[in-house]
Design a protein that fits this description.
The complex is a heterodimer of chains A (492) and B (1026). Chain A is α+β, with helices and mostly antiparallel strands. Helix content of chain A is 34%, strand content 22%. Chain A contains 17 helices and 18 strands. In chain A, a hairpin with a 5-residue loop joins strand 17 (472-479) and strand 18. In chain A, helix 7 crosses helix 8. The termini of chain A are far apart. Residues 343-351 and 412-439 of chain A have low confidence and may be disordered. Chain B has 5 domains: 20-185 and 220-253, TIM Barrel, CATH 3.20.20; 269-404 and 475-526, glyoxalase-related enzyme like fold, CATH 3.30.1900.20; 405-474, Arc Repressor Mutant, subunit A (Orthogonal Bundle); 753-898, DNA polymerase, domain 1 (Orthogonal Bundle), CATH 1.10.150; 909-1024, OB fold (Dihydrolipoamide Acetyltransferase, E2P). Chain B is 44% helix and 14% strand. Chain B has 44 helices and 22 strands. In chain B, the strands form 4 sheets. In chain B, strands 7-8-13-10-9-12-11 form a 7-stranded mixed beta sheet. In chain B, strands 1-2-3-4-5-6 form a 6-stranded mixed beta sheet, sandwiched between helices. A 5-stranded mixed barrel of chain B has the order 17-18-19-21-20. The longest helix of chain B has 20 residues, at 716-735. Chain B is globular, with a radius of gyration of 33 Å. Classes of the chains: A alpha+beta (492), B alpha/beta (1026). Chains A and B meet through helix 3, strand 4, helix 11, strand 15 and strand 16 of A and helix 6, helix 7, helix 18, helix 40 and helix 44 of B.
Chain lengths: 492, 1026
């Protein structure tokens, strides 16, 4: 195998937290496991450590020692998003990236054949570091010969190292502390107590003894450390997020002239997806006019596909309703991809029932939904879902749906709240009073949201009642907060 | 006029949003003639409601909303005493069949308990239940005492529900009555009620949706509002009065009878009590009962009989007798020590005649309260006594008293903040910033970074304040028992506690006192366990039969030891503060110990009594009395009032108070700031004192002293009881330090210091300790005589190995029973302890007996894998070589595995380094002169910031030679706060202050010793901020 590099972004959750809160620089900061006072601390910045806090301490305990400690938990989504950015950044410097299976904050990249572009491995690694810095990530980059060697060095080094020879790499690994090994903390603690402090000492122990005491994983690690590591970097399939873009020399307002350009970009996207062994689940189409206006459209096919004709048709449907104030000068297209999968439902849903009735053509239905969405907007297809609220207008919501589904596949409806749903009250016929006039019972009252934090939490106090008139039976409420009357609905 | 028949207080936990007092006060203000309190499944708040109602002349109707097993519920109101009893029994039935916090009964059970009750049917069927479930049974069982509630909460389904209610009521010929569910006394409390719902459901206000009630129509309404609500059906409003008139039960009718003890034939409870008391007196006084004692006995016995308390004293006697038979150490504490009857019965151990105590502090005619005797029991065996109570009286006649856990400011903030959706981490930060409750919560929120608009911060603050004091849930009083001659569950419902085999009533001790019920308190005391273990060890190892009664009194050596403040582990006088007082007070006799125990309390310190007393004791100030007549009262405390009993006597002597009046004065003193009752006493006391010839200025001075006393008065009897135990533990410590240490380690956890400090201190007194040994150690520490040693050593028990549990000890015992071995490999393969336990034992050197150094042993026990048959575990062909631990490392490893080391003190290993740096040990510091600047390093074993100290931190550093006590002023603490709080190995530089034989270092700076980082793992336990 040729050269490879290990890139290690130590303490990623902490880095994400500090990047999101630049004002916290220089103050004690911690990442906790949960958003709870008794949550253990997972990471600390230097300032917090200097004040005597340690990883593993309970947040509440740490706070009693350092009252100005700032702490947050870190969601897996945010960490994943950051990792994707890191991979994307590095992908500009190497064709092959392999994730480290035992350390989420490290990866390997092929460093072979980069001299032609960067001159030296050292320059290459500095450029990688600079790019990661620009993204807000502090990392270490070590170029060497073996996965484990470069990994151990990256965990124990601060920024950038290039090994000149395997012997140099081996020697450094041997001197590296066992703390840099991807072993459970408990194992590391035991090794420290046994005065097995360096990796060199660790690998000098008989493998059988290691396995019996520290488990098979430790044995595998031992082998990995000792091996020559012949396999090249196993490349990661990186989602290609570089958009397809086309600048038009002459801005266009005619859709017929615009579509061929769009079709060509579609072809590029489809090719990329196919090369990545994936299919297109959605498209983002950005059109920039010569006046600088931007329109962004999300196009979602009925099912992930590589059929450019289908995708093109959906785009045409969407754009056909649009009037461009000035000519389109630039087209940008991104595709969201997914793995191709057999829609097994298709195998069964066409089957029909035993009575000979044809089954529902769900794919056709999905395509029809897609066409409607393309024509009228992504929220054009929706169904009503009951919601839990005292306010009539909040007791249901229109929820966009992707496509038709079999009755059995629909999730069981939420049980209606015990209090009668106000929506149904529209159909309620109150008692008639004398002389045909409404017996107006005391109105029923709904009030709440006194805490009113956001637009949807505006305080309300309504007194509902029914009133008949020549036009019909009206469902009316008086807003006590404003004193005004409103019509909630008409009884059908 | 109407009567609200469906009201919930905040004792409908997390449902009702007003105190009972608030509801009653509002009802009074609205001119309502009566109120029915109907908390869910209980009468938790009924005593408070009763107390509030009788003060305001609002008639209280007692009831409860009872949950039915089909998911519905029914309201039951007590018509009469029998009905109330039935309600309590029904609720007990529903609670006892379920886990704590749940109550369900069946409709037939409701019917069975119908006599004396009025039922209000709610038409609130659960989803699975038929709509009219329960109605047939209600009609049959209650006859004309059942009504159907027509509720109008202005909910959307009111009309339909009312229609069905009327239909059903018509079908069963049940009259209707109007009622709204009252959940708060004023509309504004609706917000708090919403918050309570969120807390109950663990959700936020935004996400709660229909779990919150739809509107704010659940406040107590005025008559006009209520009438307007039911203007189309005025008969329903009138029916509320009809129902109220039928429910005439009052808590005044609750006549409680204490259980009669079984007495021998020919005796009544009174004569039996007299008999055993006099028998006991003979035992106490040996020969002739002294005349003062006899006079007091007669007086007490007469009063006890007059007040009907004989049974109570017999119960206490029986309990103590049970404890003696089972060889369980026990002793009465508190005001009971004022009673010579208790002394003669063996309940208490202090002779009140000799101590000149005041019986009326315990019992008086005017007090109109039953006696309250607290019995301290060895904490390890208290459960035996509790189960004995249950067995003797039965679960229906003995139940433990509840303890209402209420929201305090931090918990209030956390719960209300969670309802607002504020992250817990931020709330915790906020809670820590609360500090002193100065009311400015908004500022605290801002500092904590709570990101809410200003109006919401205001709401958050307001609701937090409102919820403080609200009951959260019920737990058990530490040891209070309610006993009844009739089943207790006809007085108050009984329910299951969380702890197995425990049942608890729905009232707490305040309610018990309000209702004049008898409570027996059984409290666990670690010091008694310590003494018990010590006495047993003395008997088994030293052939010495010692007991509390036979310990020689007035041992000079014991008091010498106390004067030196050499009192680690001695009950009541071991704390840092006590050790600072002992050399100043210099106790030389038992009564000095009584004073010593009483003096180091927040009260005397803030009351300004400590220094005058000490100065007079040291002869630095003349002993004077406010008036000659007061000399007998204050003589034993050198003219300085220290005890509640003295103030009582003062009032009796100087102002002709009767004993009962004096006891009322004592109680009013304690509460004078809240209730302002002292003004009445002022006029009376001063005028009477003047009438007796006391100068007005003197009289005013005496009254000022009494007023100030209210802050701190301490019962002398309580201190006297504790002083006996303190002396006993001091005696054992002085004469049998090995036994003292072993017994203390086995009785732990209790006391002020960690086991490590106890061991180190004992070692300084010549006690030898042997480390944990897998072949020799028992679970508890034991005494072992090694080779031909003259004295026993203490073998550390396996209980001190971190993570080792009782199950592990069983396995070790079983392995030992099969014959021991000299090979580690045999042990690891035969006694399959969990890996963690094996590692800890190896790290502790418990396998030294297998001739394996610790690292080798650790390597050995880690091996859990399969081997070829010819290769034995522990017999290593490929054994790596390990460096043996140094002596210092051994100590560090001991701490890592067991938080203590029998091998030496942590600081020993650094002594030569410290000497090289010119730093003395703590023993040397105590020999230096006052004012000298000194630097010393040690392990922080105590950090205290008493509330009386105005921000001053008191610390103790320990090394192998002793302690250094530090005083850290607020400014220094702030500067070195993190260092102080995060490091257990610390250095301090400051000036020596030596006064009255007490040495302190006034800290100027703190530093981290150079070697501190090497011991990052071996931290010492510290007594911190308690």
């Amino acid at each position: 195998m040729g050269l490879l590099a290990c890139i290690s972004v130590d303490g990623l959750p902490l880095q994400i937290l500090l990047n999101a809160n630049p004002g916290w620089a220089g103050t004690p900061v911690a990442v906790t496991r949960d958003e709870k006072p008794q949550s253990p601390i997972l990471a600390l910045n230097a300032c917090a450590r200097e004040k005597g806090l340690t990883v593993g301490m309970r947040y509440a305990n740490a706070l009693s020692i350092v009252p100005n400690l700032r702490a947050r938990d870190m969601s897996a989504d945010r960490i994943a998003e950051a990792r994707n950015r890191i991979v994307h950044t590095i992908s500009a410097f190497t064709p092959d990236i392999e994730l480290c299976p035992f350390d989420d904050d490290a990866l390997w990249a092929s460093a072979d054949g980069l001299r032609s572009l960067f001159g030296t491995e050292a320059h290459w690694s500095r450029e990688v570091l600079r790019s990661l810095d620009a993204e807000g990530f502090k990392a270490a980059v070590v170029v060497g010969f073996t996965r484990f060697g470069t990994y151990a060095a990256a965990r124990s080094r601060s920024r950038s190292t290039v090994f000149a020879s395997r012997e140099e790499e081996r020697a450094l690994v041997g001197r590296s502390p066992v703390d840099s090994l991807p072993l459970p903390q408990r194992t590391k603690s035991t090794l420290r107590r046994l005065e097995i402090r360096t990796i060199g000492h660790f690998v000098s122990l008989p493998e059988g003894e290691i396995v019996r005491r520290f488990g098979k994983d430790a044995g595998v690690l031992l082998k990995a450390i000792l091996s020559d590591d012949p396999l090249p970097v196993q490349p990661l399939a990186i989602a290609e997020t570089v958009p397809s873009r086309r600048h038009l020399d002459a801005p266009l307002t005619d859709l017929n002239l615009l579509m061929p350009h769009i079709d060509e970009l579609l072809a590029v996207e489809a090719a990329r997806a196919e090369a990545a062994r994936s299919v297109i689940a959605g498209l983002t189409l950005i059109l920039r006019t010569e006046d600088g206006d931007l329109t962004t459209d999300l196009i979602r096919p009925a099912a992930p596909t590589l059929m450019t004709a289908l995708l093109g048709r959906l785009i045409l449907l969407r754009l056909s309703a649009r009037q461009f104030s000035s000519g389109v000068a630039e087209i940008e297209m991104h595709s969201a991809r997914s793995s191709p999968s057999r829609t097994q439902g298709e195998l069964f849903r066409r089957g029909g029932d035993s009575g000979g009735n044809p089954g529902r053509d769900l794919p056709a239905g999905a395509r029809a939904f897609a066409a409607i969405r393309a024509r009228f907007g992504n929220d054009a297809v929706a169904c009503a879902e009951l919601r839990d609220s005292w306010l009539p207008e909040r007791s249901y919501a229109w929820v966009p749906i992707q496509g038709p589904s079999l009755p059995g596949a629909r999730p069981a409806p939420r049980p209606a709240p015990k209090r009668l749903n106000a929506v149904r009250r529209i159909l309620y016929m109150p008692q008639q009073g004398p002389e045909g006039m409404r017996t107006v019972k005391d109105p029923f009252v709904v009030s709440g949201s006194w805490w009113g934090t956001e637009a949807r939490d505006i305080p309300f106090h309504r007194e509902y009642s029914f009133h008949s008139s020549e036009q019909g039976l009206f469902w009316i409420y008086r807003d006590r907060l404003t004193g005004s009357f409103f019509v909630q609905g008409v009884v059908d | 006029m109407y009567v609200p028949l469906w009201c919930k207080t905040n004792f409908s936990f997390l449902e009702g949003a007003s105190h009972a007092e608030e509801l009653i006060e509002t009802a009074d203000r609205l001119g309502l003639p009566a109120v029915a309190i109907t908390d869910r499944n209980g009468v938790y708040g009924m005593v408070r409601a009763f107390d509030a109602a009788r003060q305001r002349k609002v008639r209280l109707i007692t009831g409860s909303q009872v949950s039915i097993d089909d998911g519905s519920s029914v309201i039951l109101l007590a018509q009469d005493r029998a009905g109330y009893g039935n309600l309590c029994r029904l609720l007990s039935c529903g609670h006892l069949r379920n886990d704590k916090g749940t109550c369900t009964v069946s409709w037939p059970e409701v019917g069975d308990h119908a006599p004396g009750l009025v039922a209000l049917w709610l038409n609130d069927p659960a989803e699975a239940a038929p709509r009219e479930s329960g109605l047939p049974i209600l009609k049959e069982a209650f006859g004309d005492r059942v009504y159907a509630i027509v509720r109008r909460h202005r909910w959307v389904d009111d009309v339909s529900r009312e229609r069905t209610t009327r239909e059903s009521a018509g079908r069963f010929s049940i009259p209707l009555v109007a009622a709204t569910e009252v959940l708060y006394h004023v509309t504004d409390r609706r917000r708090l009620q919403d918050v309570l719902v969120c807390i109950r459901h663990g959700t936020t206000l935004r996400e709660a949706e229909t779990r919150l009630l739809p509107n704010d129509e659940h406040a107590l309404k005025s008559s006009s509002e209520f009438s307007r609500l039911y203007r189309d059906s005025p008969g329903l409003v009138e029916a509320t009065q009809e129902v109220a008139d039928r429910c005439r039960f009052s808590f005044e009718e609750l006549v409680y009878k204490y259980p009669d003890e079984v007495v021998p034939a020919g005796f009544t409870t009174a004569t039996w009590l007299r008999h055993i008391t006099l028998e006991g007196a003979k035992g106490r006084y040996k020969s002739e009962i002294p005349a003062p004692a006899r006079a007091l006995l007669e007086k007490e016995l007469a009063l006890i009989e007059e007040l009907g308390y004989c049974g109570y004293f017999l119960t206490m006697w029986e309990l103590v007798r049970f404890c003696r038979e089972k060889e369980i150490l026990c002793q009465g504490r508190g005001s009971a020590a004022n009673s010579v009857v208790c002394y003669c019965l063996g309940v208490t151990s202090v002779d009140p005649v000799k101590m000149d105590l005041l019986f009326e502090r315990f019992l008086s005619r005017e007090r109109a309260e039953p006696p309250d005797i607290d019995l301290d029991i060895e904490h390890n065996r208290r459960e035996e006594v509790i189960q004995h109570m249950y067995e003797k009286y039965g679960r229906d006649r003995a139940a433990m008293v509840a303890n209402v856990v209420r929201y305090r400011k931090r918990s209030a903030l956390r719960e209300v903040g969670k309802a607002f959706g504020i992250p817990e981490i931020v709330l915790d930060h906020c809670a820590k910033l609360l500090g002193h409750w100065d009311g400015n919560l908004e500022a605290v929120f801002r500092e904590a970074g709570i990101d809410l608009p200003a109006h919401l911060l205001g709401q958050l603050a307001e609701l937090t304040r409102q919820i403080v004091g609200f009951p959260r849930h019920l737990s058990i009083h530490p040891g209070g028992f309610l006993l009844g001659s009739e089943p207790v569950d006809t007085i108050v419902p009984i329910e299951n506690a969380t702890m197995e085999k425990r049942t608890v009533i729905q009232w707490d001790k305040t309610d018990i006192e309000t209702m004049n019920l008898f409570k027996v308190d059984l409290l666990g005391l670690g010091a008694l366990t310590h003494l018990d273990y010590a006495f047993r060890l003395l008997k088994s190892h030293y052939a010495t039969d010692l007991s509390m009664a036979t310990i020689p009194s007035d041992d000079r050596g014991v008091y010498d030891m106390a004067c030196r403040a050499d009192t680690v582990g001695v009950f009541q006088i071991e704390s840092r503060a006590q050790m600072a007082m002992l050399p100043r007070l210099k106790p030389r006799n038992y009564y000095d110990l009584v004073v010593e125990i009483s003096l180091v309390r927040p009260g005397p310190i803030t009351g300004g009594m400590v220094h005058p007393y000490l100065r007079r004791r040291a002869g630095q100030e003349a002993v004077t009395y406010p008036h000659p007549s007061l000399e007998p009262v204050l003589r034993k405390t050198l003219g300085v009032p220290l005890f509640q009993e003295q103030v009582m006597k003062l009032a009796m002597v100087a102002a002709d108070y009767t004993p009962g009046e004096a006891d009322q004065l004592r109680r009013d003193m304690a509460a004078w700031k809240q209730r302002g009752k002292m003004e009445g006493h002022h006029d009376r006391l001063v005028s009477r004192m003047v009438a007796r010839g006391i100068e007005p200025a003197f009289a005013e001075g005496v009254f000022s002293q009494i007023l100030g006393f209210g802050e701190y008065g301490f019962p002398e009897s309580h201190a006297a009881s504790f002083a006996l135990i303190a002396y006993a533990t001091a005696y054992v410590r002085h004469h049998y330090p090995v036994v003292f240490a072993c017994a203390l380690l086995n009785a732990w956890p209790f006391g002020f210091y960690s086991p490590a400090t106890v061991i180190d201190d004992s070692r300084r007194h010549g006690v030898k300790f042997l480390p944990v040994d897998i072949l020799q150690s028992h679970w508890d520490c034991t005494l072992e005589r090694q080779h031909d040693a003259a004295e026993y050593a203490v073998r550390i028990g396996l209980r001190y190995v971190k993570g080792l549990g009782d199950g592990d000890w069983q396995r070790i015992q079983a392995w030992r029973a099969g014959g021991t071995t000299s090979r580690l490999s045999d042990f690891t393969s035969q006694c399959r302890l969990p890996r963690d336990s094996m590692e800890r034992l190896a790290e502790l050197g418990a396998f030294d007996c297998f001739d394996k150094e610790r690292r080798e042993a650790l390597w050995g026990v880690l091996d859990r894998g399969d081997r070829p048959a010819n290769l034995l575990v522990g017999d290593f062909d490929e054994m790596p070589s390990f460096r043996p631990l140094s002596a210092a490392e051994e100590i560090t490893w001991d701490y890592l595995a067991s938080d203590q080391s029998p091998r030496g003190h942590m600081m020993e290993q650094y002594r030569s380094l410290l000497e090289h740096q010119g730093l003395p040990d703590t023993a040397a510091v105590t020999r230096m002169e006052h004012g000298r600047k000194v630097s010393v390093a040690g392990c922080a074993i105590c950090r205290q910031m008493p509330s009386t100290a105005s921000g001053v931190l008191f610390m103790t550093l320990e090394d192998e030679t002793g302690f250094a006590n530090l005083v850290v002023w607020e400014k220094v603490f702030k500067q070195y706060r993190t260092l102080i709080l995060t490091n257990w190995l610390l250095g301090v530089t400051g000036r020596l202050q030596i006064a009255d034989g007490v040495t302190h270092i006034i800290a100027e700076s703190f530093w981290k010793p150079d070697f501190a980082h090497e011991n990052a793992g071996g931290a010492r336990a510290s007594h911190d901020f308690r």
